[in-house]
């Protein structure tokens, strides 16, 4: 039976409604993720009143705790058995805990500074654990809906178009929603805004559950432990390259988005431009993601990612030389960087699914959720490291919240948006040279897997 299902999965062309239904889930996730990337750090320093250095350490520690749980969640999801499949049930039952912990995370408690810091540790950890319970199965779902690599790239492009749409909503509306809903009470405004986002996100996750199907099952004879799954990944060279790459690229993305708010507020002295810059950047990311299926028809995924990250590196470094009065030039560079970064996520997640195929081809065992979960570990560690570096650098440069900054502090903020993520992006382009699954190799792997599945049918 499993073999027959896998055979059908290889031949299936995903209907449009299923691609849209799957994609809309990441709109919901980015109502949280975009807030974390762009606003959580400045919420902690400028609203909750925590010291920047302490926040940096807190975000690194809590994200590491969360990242360690990803492989465990992947192992649990791979071994789940239900009438709805392995991964879809989590989208239905995990939404409310995430909504509740999201509101708690953006709550300013009536405590002293030490108590507020402990509150931040506890609530952010709980929210990210709830996020993991949903996000790991959601990512793995794309690897079992179809076995066709180009279809996966298209499917995941829908996902990231929706993701960047969610980021656009957060970027343009969040600060206004905080003002409107709080009516002068900023902490209350953040609570109500995250409550609203939680309701919308829950509806998005329900849409994924209702509109998608799981078609690929592990080999019927497969019996493996979590330890075996991890060992399989450590012997998977394509996945190891992507693991390092995901960490590096996430440093670039989070460092740019997290420092942009500070850059506009304290260096450019135009905080009212935050919505324009973040919102237009998100639209550029979405446009880049939408172009991915077309680009991959003509350019090998590996070469495409090298060129994209090299371009991001050069443009980010160039932005360092833009004077703070040149708003138009600054905006144009920011848009071009977003356009080049847009295809990164669809490409990487499509390649994770290819890595799951590679493991099955090499070992006869398949652990789709573990493949995505361990990659998420790398991404979260990279994001945590970037947030921590921003906070630590601000503290080292003498940052004082809601005050005019010293020249050293302002220069540090400029470096965090431009040169530092630019150099990291260039390193990512170099790392991608070691990825071995070019198009001909991947075609051979998938053809041999297809023959095996047909033989078992």
Provide a descriptive summary of the structure in words.
The protein is mainly α and 457 residues long. Helix content is 81%, strand content 0%. The chain has 19 helices and no strands. The chain has helices at 2-11, 16-47, 52-78, 88-93, 95-105, 113-145, 149-182, 186-211, 226-234, 237-267, 274-290, 292-298, 301-319, 327-341, 344-363, 368-396, 407-417, 419-431, 439-456. The protein starts with a helix and ends with a helix. Residues 1-11 have low confidence and may be disordered.
Itemize the secondary structure elements and their pairings.
Elements: H1 2-11, H2 16-47, H3 52-78, H4 88-93, H5 95-105, H6 113-145, H7 149-182, H8 186-211, H9 226-234, H10 237-267, H11 274-290, H12 292-298, H13 301-319, H14 327-341, H15 344-363, H16 368-396, H17 407-417, H18 419-431, H19 439-456
Summed up, what is this model?
The chain has 19 helices and no strands. It has 457 residues and is an all-alpha fold.
Specify the biggest β-sheet.
none
How many β strands by DSSP? Answer: 0
Order of helices and strands: HHHHHHHHHHHHHHHHHHH
Distance between the termini: 7 Å
Beta-strand fraction estimate: under 5%
Determine the oligomeric state from the structure.
single chain
Helix percentage range: over 70%
Mean pLDDT: 85
Secondary structure category: mainly alpha
Q: What's the alpha carbon Rg, rounded to whole Å?
A: 22 Å
Give me the number of helical elements.
19
Q: Indicate the overall shape.
A: globular
Model regions low in confidence, pLDDT < 50 over at least 5 residues: 1-11
